[in-house]
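Researcher: Please translate sequence to structure tokens.
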Amino acid sequence: MFGIGKIKCSKCGIENDKNDRFCCACGSNLTGAVCSGCGAKIGPGDKFCPECGSSIKPAASDLRSKATPAQPLEESIKMWTRQPADFARRFELEDIKGTFRKHITIEQGTKAIFLQGGKFLGELLPGNYDAGGLLKRIGDLNISEKATVIVLDGSDTRLNFKIGSLRTKESFDSGVRGTITLNVENPILFFTNLMKSRDYISLGDLNEFL
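Model: Translation complete:
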């Protein structure tokens, strides 16, 4: 049975508020889509349109694994598009000059932060960059040494949380439900505390950290 005003995630089974766009546990899309045949609203778990019976083909983004191993930066940074469950991905860049010999594209909605020698050097915002554009943006970068690059969501990230099994002073059962807004303001602390031994962090990982 669903709770009043709840919607169940088709991926992990967790109940969410009916107005939530993404699952608070795994980040899956809860809003569904629209049938290309008749325009009727399609639920996130529907395989056929409830109005006209048309087969629903999964979106390309649903076919991609959200936790696939990191690929070489030159290819991955061009193709990396933040999915609902993505937060950050880390790359070790050995050949900076060679990688940026061709244009590198930072996708809209993301940014790439550069760390070298334990220091934060700067970030690349959405756009196309070659080696000259990289050095113009991050002047202190030593292209003859390796660097750590973290590609992450470039805007505020909202995480829903729940705390249950609480009791009031009057001995009533209660709980807390709220939203935390995240934004990386200190890249060094973010790298040291969360990314140092990881190649990838999902929204589900962040929920577990809470």
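Researcher: Any highlights?
Model: Residues 187-195 form the longest helix (9 residues).
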